[in-house]
Task: structure prediction
Amino acid sequence: MRRTQLYLDDQLWGALHARAQSEKTSVSELVRQAVRERYLGNLERRRAAMERFVGIRQTSDDRPDAGAEIRNFRRGNRLDRLGER
Result:
């Protein structure tokens, strides 16, 4: 973790300080949360989007058995085709 220093106007400091007290946390933690949400986005949303993109969130009914899929690739006439050359 790196240390940084920010200059906040009195209104912003007051709002952050009040919020930190009500949530029983520090102003620093509130700032870290805000920066994470703004610049990194919601981790769960990003993870769900990536999983949908690569297709790993399919239900087990939709997803073929990986072993069976590989065996199907290995089966076939590839060796026969190679022998014809």
